[in-house]
Structures are given as structure tokens and as C-alpha cells.
Amino acid sequence: MASKSVHEINIKPWLNKVAEWGSTTSLEIQQDVCLHLPDLNKFLLQIYETLKHMEPTTAIERLPLLGQFLGRLCWNSLVIGHEKTRQLLIYCLCCLTSREPQNAIERKANSWIKRLFCHLLSGKGREDSHLFSQLECTAAEYYERLLKNITSSLTKQLRSSRRDDRSDLLVQQVRSISLICIPILNLDEVVPLLEALLLYNGPEPYEVLDSQFLYAVNEAVLRKKIALSESGVLSLWLRHLPSLEKAVLDLFQRLIALQSKSFREMEEIIKDSYLPQASCHPGIFRVIDDIFRSAILESEGNIKIITIIRLFTHCFIQEYYKDSSKARLPLRAYFSHKNTPLVLALLRRAEGLSPNTCIQHLHVIVNILRAVDNEERSHENVFQSWFLLIRLGAWVDIAAEQLLTSDPEISDDLLWLLAFYYNPCNESQNRGRTMDEAKSVYERLVSIQKSSTICAMSFHKLFSEENKSDTWHPCTLQLIRHLCVTFIVFCPKWHNVAKDCVSHMTQTQEAASEVSDVLARTLSRLDIPGMESQKIITIVHTLLHDL
Q1: Which are the contacts of 423, defined by CB distance < 8 A and separation ≥ 6?
Q2: What is the spatial distance between Cα 270 and Cα 312, in angstroms, rounded to a whole number?
Q3: 538 and 434 in a common domain
Q4: According to DSSP H, which parts of 375-473 are helical?
Q5: What does R_g of the chain's alpha carbons equal in angstroms?
Q6: One domain for residues 427 and 536
Q7: What local confidence, expressed as pLDDT, does residue 467 receive?
Q8: d(C-alpha 547, C-alpha 544), whole Å
Q9: In the chain, fewer beta carbons within 10 Å around the N or the C end?
Q10: Are both 329 and 349 inside the same structural domain?
Q11: Could you tell me which residues come within 8 angstroms of residue 241 by beta carbon, excluding any fewer than 6 positions away?
Q12: Within-domain flag for 98
């Protein structure tokens, strides 16, 4: 229908008619409303066709009676009970919403329109008991059906606009619909409309949904106030980077605040966030990867941050392999690193491999990392390799296990891997010192392992003054604690004094946190179906419980 000029639109007669109807729902008024609805719809369509070519402020100035007219219609139960009329009212109000209100008048108009939409969609407002008795339903039932009808109608419009570029929906309308959903987005009936908005993909080269709406939906998703489909959440994060960043930071905060030492509990929280599943989309993965890099740098390698990143990557890889029918990039492509052999080596799974095969594979990893450290040395190259080792760090724990359960002749390479993991920077040759100090403790552990006497005091001496444990660099101390925990766990004859040994190692909160982390990682790595490690799993459970 061709739009009319503003001068051709005469609102006064219709305003008088609507005023005549008032809020009465007598049989006579009902008949009059039904009689005039076809013409009213034609008139509203003329208004809409005119408004969609005008700026909101201009429309309000040139049609001063328009606000009063639309407002009266929106509060008339008989009028908004008709789906086509209600839809036209919504379209007209969308056109009057200012995209970026510049003054008090536009802000006031937006606020007024928002209240009308809230009433139209949620049914909050005047209730006419006489009307509901005639309709043979309660007010709650009426408004529930009304809300479902409205959201269903708008949802169909949005979905059809995705299939038909000639849809009547304009950018301004889509944005306005997103705005009016904010106060009612926690209602179950509105979820299909939220999904349709998030999945809307018009020809516009810019974001059409209002940022306030995207922030509000993300907050509701994070607080579990609404349950969107996986595709809806993925679309939200793909089209609104701040929402994705907020979701990742929210997950970090929850995991850092968690007092539990159970990786299972942490995994449940991570998976429940839907972030590992969403990470299967390369764009999402890249953003989260960048956030992890920043977190590592800003926290200066905080052990809790490293644990969260390792565990998240583990959950992501599980999700990646869960549905092999989906077309995805090869897993190695997600981990952007110019050293492809290192990526492939760290991605290899250790389950089912013999100790000799594991050791050979660890030598491959060490050789690649040493080449980076010696031949291609730069801060960026070393950091990239270290960051990759953090994300795929299971082989570091396997190296510690093999050190204390295999031939001592392999110790140098595996100790170097642990030293690189805990001290990648090697400033002032600190890693060489870390290696020497760790090797001294390692040799003592091998010695007491061979001894026929099991005495906790011989373990305590590893941390005595004569070993200068108080002068060890923090990186060295972390590595040595890792070795000692591994020794206690994987040397069964020491299980009887394990509690005493761990208690001696964990005199500070920092030490307890590091020891708990190694124990929890060990439990997560071994507690899988088919692994014959029940005795080790039992002692780890006991030690974690005591800590």
C-alpha cells in the first residue's frame, strides 16, 4: 500500500471514536468495535506506511494526536484482542522509537512506548472482570494466551524475514522489538521471540539488535533465569563480543571462588556454562583463547588460572569429539601455532599407551620445545609454546609420573620439560638453576624409593634447612612439590605415611593449593573406565579429603 503524506492522515475522527469506546465492554460497544475493526486496521496500516519513512521526532511533531490515539488503542482490551490490530499497533510504536535518543523528549517517548509494549506483551495493566466473565476465562488465562499470540506473531514475522528479503520488517522495527523484550524477557512465553531475534540475520552490514537487549539476555542466561537453545546462545555470543567476554569472566570468577578440590565439580560448572560447546565454533574459540592469554599474562602464571585453562581445554576437546557427524575444522587448526608438530604431539592421547611409548613421545615433545628454546628463541615464540603446553598439559603430569616409575637414565629430558613448564622465561639462566635443584631432589627421591626403610622423616629432610628449601625460587618449589606428590602417589609402599608427608609439605595456603591441584589433576587423569589404578585413586581421594 502506498504511504500517505502527513497532511492526508486525519486522526481526529478516529481519536473521537476510540474515546467513545473508552474502557466499556458492553455488548453494544463490542459490536461497534467489531464493526469498525476492518477500517481501523486500514487506517493503522496507512499510519505505519507513513511512519516508516519518517524520523520518530518528526512524526511526533507533525502528528501531535498520534501518541494519544495509539495509547488509547493499546489500553483497549477489545482492540488488542484482535491479532492483526495488535500487530499493526506494535509496528507503529516501533517506528516511533528513537534508535539513539538525543534529548529529553525522545527519551520520554521511548520510556512511554516501552511501557505500552510491556502492557501489550505481558498484559500488565487494567483488568476488566466483566470482559473476562464474557470470555469465560480468568485474567491470567486471557493475558497468557494474548502474550503467546503476540510473541508467536512476531516470531513468525522475524523467521519469515530470514527467508524473504522482501519482508515488511524494517531494521528499526527489529531493534524496537528487541528493546521492548527487555522488561519481560524472563517470561517463558517470550523465549521463542528471543530466539527469533537472536537468530535474525538481515541484509544490514551492522548490528540491528539493541545492545541493552543483548546485555540483558546474556545476564539472564548467565543467571539461569531463562533457558535458550544452544544455537540461540551461540548466536548471542557471535553477534555481541561483550556478552561472550562477560560469560568467560563470569566463569573464571565462579571457579576461582570455588573451594572444592574436585575437578569433576569444576568440569560440571564449565560444561554448564555452554562455553566449551560454543568453542567448537572457531570464532568463539579464538576470542576465548585471547582472553586466556591475557589472564595468564596479567596473573603472572597463577596456578589457579593455569588449572582453569587446562581444565577448560580438556572439556572443549571432549565436546569436539562428542559429535563427529558435524563438519568441523581439524582439531589442530584451533590451536594457532606455527609449530604444527608440537600441536600434534601435545594433542596425542596417552590412554592405552605403554610406558615405553609414552617416554618416546615425551622425548619428541622435549626435542621440539628445546629447538624453540635454543634456535628460535624470542619472547613471543617461547610464550606461544609454553601457552600451548599449559592448555594441553597432560603430558607434563605423565612426565613426572614416568620420572619416578621408569628408568632413571631418562631423567634429564623429563626434568627439562617440567622446568620449562614451571619456568619458561629462563631469565638470568634461572631455569638451569631450577633444573639443578629439582634434579637434586629427584635423586634423593629415587634413593629413598630404593630404600627398604619407609620413614616419613627421610621425606621431611627433603625440605629441611640443609637443602635450603627456603631459598628455592617459587618456580623451583612448584616443580619440587609436583615431584614429591607424584612420588607419594605412585610409590605404593609409601601410601602408609602419605598423610604425614603431605601434611609436612602443606604448611602454607599456597603449598596446600599447589599440592591439591596436582592431586586433583592426577585423579582426573586416572579415574577413567578401563584404567587399573584403583589403589592410586583411593589414596588420592583420601589425601584430597584431608587437605
Answers
A1: 430, 431, 434, 473, 475, 476, 479
A2: 7
A3: yes
A4: 379-391, 394-405, 411-422, 430-450, 456-460
A5: 33
A6: yes
A7: 53
A8: 5
A9: N
A10: no
A11: 287
A12: no
360 and 504 housed in the same domain: yes
Q: Which domain holds residue 257?
A: 247-334
pLDDT digits (tens, 9 = 90+) for 245-269: 999 999 999 998 886 667 888 999 9
Confirm if 109 and 99 have CB atoms less than 8 A apart: no
Q: What does pLDDT average to over the chain? A: 83
Cα separations (Å) of 347 from 311, 350, 355, 388, 391?
Answer: 14, 9, 18, 10, 10
What cell was used for 104?
529529553
Tally of structural domains, the chain = 2
Which of 334, 365, 400 corresponds to the end of one domain?
334
Residues 187/217, Cβ–Cβ less than 8 Å: no
Looking up cell 570464532, which residue turns up? 283
| Integer Cα distance of 314 and 352 in angstroms | 18
Residue 403 has which C-alpha cell?
620420572
Same domain, 378 and 315: no
Q: What is the mean pLDDT of residues 427-438?
A: 77
Domain membership flag for residue 483? yes
The yes-or-no verdict on residue 292 having pLDDT over 70 is yes
In a domain, 540, yes or no: yes
What is the value of pTM for the model shown? 0.75
Residue 14 grid cell? 478516529
Listed residues 314, 334, 354: the one ending a domain:
334
SS (H, E, C) 132-168: HHHHCCCHHHHHHHHHHHHHHHHHHHHHHHHHCCCCC
To the nearest whole percent, how much of the chain has pLDDT over 70? 86
Q: Per residue in 200-226, pLDDT tens?
A: 887 777 888 989 899 999 999 998 888
Cβ atoms of 30 and 78 within 8 Å: the answer is yes
Answer yes or no: are the C-beta atoms of 454 and 496 closer than 8 Å. yes
Distances (CA, A) of 358 to 105, 406, 443: 72, 11, 22
pLDDT of residue 129 exceeding 50: no
Q: 368 and 282: one domain?
A: no
The contacts of residue 53 (CB under 8 Å, 6+ apart) are 3
pLDDT in tens, 61-95: 888 898 899 999 988 888 887 878 887 888 888 78
Flag whether 135 is in a domain.
no
Residues 399 and 454 in one domain: yes
HEC string for 353-372: CCHHHHHHHHHHHHHHHHHH
Note the pLDDT tens digit of each residue in 502-539: 888 888 888 888 899 899 888 888 876 655 678 888 88
Q: For residues 534 and 539, give the distance between their C-alpha atoms in angstroms, rounded to a whole number.
A: 9
Are residue 369 and residue 484 in the same domain, yes or no? yes
DSSP string, 27-57: HHHHHHHHHHHHHHHHHHHHHHHHHTTS-HH
Return the residue matching grid coordinates 477500517: 39
Mean pLDDT of 280-306: 91
Q: Which residue has the higher pLDDT, 26 or 229?
A: 229
